[in-house]
Amino acid sequence: MSRVRPALLSALVFLAAPALAAAPTPPVRVGEPSPEAAAAAPRVQIALLLDTSGSMDGLIHQAREQLWKVVNTFAHARREGVRPTLEIALYEYGNDSLSAEGGYIRQVLPFTRDLDRVSEALFGLTTNGGSEYCGQVIQRATQQLAWSTRKGDLKLLYIAGNEPFSQGPVAWKTAVAAAKEHGVRVNTLHCGDADEGARTGWKEAALAGGGRYLAFDHTRAVAQVAAPQDAEIAQLGEALNRTYVGYGAQAPAAAARQGMQDANAKSASPSAAAERAVSKASGAYDNSSWDLVDRKRKGESVAAAAPVAQLPAELRALSEPEREAYVEKKSKEREQLQQRIAKLAAERQAFLAAEEKKSAAAGAATLDSAVLQSAKAEAAEEGYAF
Questions:
Q1: Which of 68, 163, 211, 281 could form a disulfide linkage to 276, CB 3.0–4.6 angstroms apart?
Q2: pTM of the model
Q3: Per-residue pLDDT at 127
């Protein structure tokens, strides 16, 4: 059974470090690409395989908090000058509440671009003791997920835990080899002593899977750095919700989910709320499946979105030109908010980068520098730059 450990935090910081180490202005969603360009954009697929056995409540809390840093990192990634689309999948394993016949494994989410659903799923995770079968969960994720087959798409699998990697009925070497054959990089994050992780298979698995092996001190508390811009950014993020114009049967539930994930991020920490707001102002946060503003930015008309009966009440009595004008007005309101968030976010990143340097100079843990080098190297090998 697992001990309390923030291994997932390690995974998410591993991905998020570029956002903390540099201060590029996050992209603002002014002018979306055409549907053809969006379809041709590179894809970044991230599968998170999380051990939810034992007393993992602290781990899960930190996972929820770090999600939006992952999003923001890849929101300003580029491959050949093109921003990639981000898809995240989530598995839990090693939980006694799951089926023993299924290896104590559950696919929480397949690959999705709906980031609110990812946040909702993380906030829905619970913990329980169990057996952790690394090989089997890697095999399951490799076989079940719709991994891209296009050259240049970045396919990353992160498995977090600290029990021996060899447990379970599926040999990890077989599972990792199959993942690598699909072009999936297997990254392992062992919580605890690096030598122990090496002895118990975590390092070997990462090397075999073309990924990186990282080990972290799971007893060290992660310091929270409050930036002076956090409060205003979070408020502006909530104001963005008032620019959404829902359509279709799923819109009410989607809008409610959006508000709930704002509240969840705020409950995690002020910095998490700010990171989420920055994500919502970026191109990675796309709700065109239920929001007319996002849909219109992709060049699609209001009239083609849904029957009049499935439009919000304020649009039903308007003529078609008036509806288009209403959505355009909301789009401009959103653009102004996004511009302000982008400016504050750049200031915030500069502040955090300066604080990082102070901490390193004071002798604090310097894991971020190693994580940054690893993350940049892995993305660079596939032609990505931040």
A1: 68
A2: 0.83
A3: 87
